[in-house]
Input
Amino acid sequence: MDRKLMEQQREEEERRREKAQELVQYRAIYQRSEDSRDADINYNHQGGPSVSLVNQETLGPASMQVFQGEGVGENEWKKYQVEQNERTLRAQREEREKCQKEQKHKELLRGLDLIQQDLRAIQLDALEEECKKAALTALKSYNLAQAEERQERERQDNQKHEGLELAEVLQMVTSDLLTECPEAAVKEGMGSAEAPRVLPDRWKGMSSEQLSAIYRQRAEQCADRESQRQREKQSNLEWGLQQLEQARQQVEEERRARELERERRAQLDQYNQQLAREQQAHNQYLNNEVYTNRPTVRYFSQFSTSSR
Output
């Protein structure tokens, strides 16, 4: 985009330069000073009086058009100007042809550059397609290797799981659980500090003493839970009363604020009414005392009645 912008700027400058050259050429050809209306005075053209034909004695002080020494070397100067104009036009034409050649050369280089860019883009697309194919091939090989590895791992896991299941079945068949041995459910401690513990896989149920202890502990927990619920209920009641009191205070504050706002608006209305009465009295004074001589339609219709 920067290159295109620079090229557009260069083309715009070239167009401006060509327009300026064409303007100079047009002025040199069609707007010469010797073709002007007063050329008969300055260049002795269009039937103007010649130095040799004018009798200076017949001309008065206000009619003098030709003076002594005027027009000396005029023909050489005109010839020099014509040659100078031809050289200038020739140089401008050569410069324009040179600019056109340079412009064509630049366009040719730009076209070659675009062709090279297209070829480079095609090559890059081909390389990208090859890279994509190679990446897809490598990914396919990697996925196949991962699938084979996963299948081998699953096979090993299945074999290990089947072995564990067979060992568990064998242990259950030969254990004391199926033989219903009550002594196998309790394991004595190895030391004096270690209490006997129950083996879950051999346990056959609790005794009546254990069940009574569990029921008693559950009743105590229910009583504690009920007392805690009563304390929470009392706390919620107190909190509700406190919130109710806060709400009542807030309502009272809002009522007082509304009353203050109502009083303020009443005072403001009274003040506005007083201002309105004063403004009305002032307007009446202006209309009745100051602005008594109002202009009529006839006063305004007397202006802008002529073209001047």
About this structure: Strands lie at 186-187, 197-198. The first helix runs from residue 2 to 30. Residues 45 and 150 are 110 Å apart (CA to CA).
